[in-house]
């Protein structure tokens, strides 16, 4: 088990290294000069001379060879120094520290809701196959998987925010500042983030449970006269969760990645919104650091999922 974890950690480090390479050089392939964009967006610098521009390039390290820039950025990341933002003119680490709790809070809320409700509805549809629960869950899961979350967000803003005036349309409030206002502002973004994951988990849980229910040991449990609750919870559910756990790791990545769209739609000051604004201003350090943070979350989620296999199924051996 220890050797397996070490190998997975080394693979995770290699994946993160490849992410740094791809995002760093992809940003440099974009047309335009971040310094010129920064000057164009600042009225005070609109008359800056060529000498002043070179001074700005030197300040942000853009006058060095590209390989030196990459080495400097990676070495800084290892020391938790993510560089300095060109657009915001402040340390990137400070920006991430301010914005990441917002994205993490909404992402965890969406993940918990999608996981719990997805598993529960999948179990309901499988246990009562052909019943009203199954007839409701199955078509709704197809709709949830295919619906575009940005379109759903705009539709909810129009209906519940503009027309009915039930919920705030934009913004974010910390639950530690005003819990009730946080709930009202988080309802629509969390629904948009969780709807696709919830539908996918429900469908997979249903199909996985139906496969397990057909096994011989389940029929033996029924023949022994065990209660339905014991059979479902002790024998069927645990064995049917293995493929679902795999999807949970992937869905966490989709939820965190989906925050880029949802935070933009609802004007939520999280990492996703920060990343979008930084892409348009070609703020290299911010975009690279945000992408790396997303990659770390996905890699860690998949690592936890792989380790969880052994707990769910003792037959799985890690060589």
CATH C-level class of the largest domain is: Mainly Alpha
CA gyration radius, whole angstroms = 24 Å
Task: Give the count of helical stretches.
Answer: 12
Q: Multimeric state of these chains? A: single chain
Question: What share of the residues lie within helices?
Answer: over 70%
Q: How would you characterize the largest beta sheet?
A: none
The CATH architecture of the largest domain can be given as: Orthogonal Bundle
Structural class: mainly alpha
Globular, elongated, flat, extended or rod-shaped: what is the shape? globular
- CATH topology of the largest domain, which one? MetI-like fold
List the helices and strands and how they pair.
Blueprint: H1 2-29, H2 34-41, H3 50-59, H4 66-78, H5 92-127, H6 132-146, H7 149-163, H8 179-213, H9 216-223, H10 228-265, H11 271-280, H12 284-312
Helix pairs in contact: 1-12, 5-6, 5-8, 5-10, 6-8, 7-8, 7-10, 8-10, 10-11, 10-12, 11-12
Supply the key terms.
319 residues, mainly alpha, 2 domains, 12 helices
Short description:
This protein is mainly α and 319 residues long.
Task: Walk me through this protein's architecture.
- The chain is built from twelve helices and no strands.
- It folds into two domains: 2-78, no CATH class; 93-312, MetI-like (MetI-like fold).
- Helix content is 77%, strand content 0%.
- With 319 residues, it is mainly alpha-helical.
- Helix 11 packs antiparallel against helix 12 (284-312).
- The longest helix has 38 residues, at 228-265.
- The protein is globular, with a radius of gyration of 24 Å.
- The mean pLDDT is 81.
- The relative contact order is 0.14.
- It has helices at residues 2-29, 34-41, 50-59, 66-78, 92-127, 132-146, 149-163, 179-213, 216-223, 228-265, 271-280, 284-312.
């Amino acid at each position: 088990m220890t050797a397996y974890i070490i190998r997975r950690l080394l693979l995770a480090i290699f994946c993160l290294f490849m992410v740094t390479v791809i995002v760093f050089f992809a940003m440099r392939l974009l047309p335009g000069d971040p310094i010129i964009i920064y000057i164009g967006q600042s009225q005070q610098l609109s008359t800056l001379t060529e000498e002043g521009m070179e001074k700005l390039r030197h300040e942000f390290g853009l006058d060095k060879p590209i390989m030196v820039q990459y080495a400097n950025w990676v070495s800084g990341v290892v020391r938790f120094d993510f560089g300095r933002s060109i657009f915001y003119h402040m340390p990137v680490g400070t920006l991430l520290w301010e914005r990441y709790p917002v994205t993490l809070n909404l992402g965890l809320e969406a993940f918990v809701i999608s996981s719990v409700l997805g598993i529960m509805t999948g179990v309901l549809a499988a246990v009562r196959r052909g019943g009203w629960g199954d007839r409701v869950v199955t078509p709704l899961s197809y709709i949830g998987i295919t619906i575009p979350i940005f379109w759903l967000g705009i539709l909810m803003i129009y209906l519940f925010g503009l027309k009915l005036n039930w919920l705030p349309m934009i913004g974010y409030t910390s639950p530690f500042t005003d819990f009730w206002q946080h709930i009202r502002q988080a309802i629509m973004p969390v629904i948009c983030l969780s709807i696709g994951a919830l539908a996918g988990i429900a469908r997979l849980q249903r199909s996985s449970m139906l496969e397990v229910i057909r096994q011989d040991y389940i029929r033996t449990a029924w023949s022994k006269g065990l209660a339905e609750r014991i059979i479902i919870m002790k024998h069927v559910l645990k064995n049917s969760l293995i493929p679902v756990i795999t999807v949970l790791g992937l869905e966490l990545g989709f939820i965190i990645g989906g925050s880029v769209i949802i935070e933009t739609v609802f004007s939520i000051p999280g990492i996703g919104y920060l990343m979008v604004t930084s892409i348009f201003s070609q703020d290299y350090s911010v975009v690279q650091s945000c992408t790396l943070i997303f990659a770390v979350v996905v890699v860690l989620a998949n690592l936890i999922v792989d380790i969880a296999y052994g707990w769910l199924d003792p037959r799985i051996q890690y060589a």
